Every structure is written in C-alpha cells, then in structure tokens.
Amino acid sequence: MKNVAIWIAIAIVFAIYNTVTRADRDDSGAVVDAGRIDAFQMKVGDCFNDSTAMTSDTEFEVSSVAGVPCADPHDNEVYAIFDVGVDSYPEGDGMSELAFNSCLKRFEPFVGKDYESSSLDILPMYPTLQSWKQRDDREVICAVYDMTLAKLEGSVSGLGL
What we know:
The chain is of the alpha+beta class and about 160 residues long.
C-alpha cells in the first residue's frame, strides 16, 4: 500500500512540474508566457529558443522546446507544420532531405523573400525512425532563424528578411 501512495505522490509532483514549466497560451493559441512546449503541441507562429543540443553540430532529438512570446527576443519561429506523404521511412539522409526540401517550398510564401537571398535559414524538425515506428509520427516542423544567430524579435512573417 505504501508503494502505491509513493507512486501517486510522484505522479502528482510530475504533473505539477509539467504544468508549472509549460508555456502559457492565450485564447488564440499564441504563447504569452515562456515555458516548455511539447514537440507534438507546437503550432505555426510559435517562437522558441535553442537548447544546448540544437546548437551542436550533431543531429539531435527534440521532445520539447523553450517557448517564448514572439515579442521577446528568440532564436526560431515555426512557419509550417505538415505530415510527410511517404509510406516508409526514407533511408540514410532521406528524411532530412525530404524535410528540408519540403520546408524550402514553404519558405518564400512565409518570409516574403526567396531562400537564396534571405538572411534567414531553415531549421527542419522531423520524425526519427523510432518515433515513426512507435508513435506513427509523420510530422515535420519548419522553423526559421537568423543565419548570424542574432535573436529575432516579433514575427518574421512577410518581412522579406
């Protein structure tokens, strides 16, 4: 009986921690207070800062991001979210290339400038083989960031940067 009480207490503490550290959204869905955003709860227009893993040169897995209001200085802005339309997980760098090329098609309509002329770059986030198999994850998230790594302020939508 004591073990059950301990597990219940741990679950309650975990739930409180997740609630306290989660980003707050207003009625429109915009982030109004900084906090964690689950990768599967991200929305177009969300702004977030890099984690240590994201700034490394190696591939990384993202389960959540540090969401911030777009009016605050931030590293990235989500501009597209979609499911990939392939039946099996691409081999090698196939998923990375598919995600980047799909994000590239959506870049100019959002930014207002073609990719080659822009001061912004693309951060594609895409399913891992494990999430593909275990969670039926097909979602790609496209975000933009400043190539000089300067902080963005406000939305870059339509600014032609």
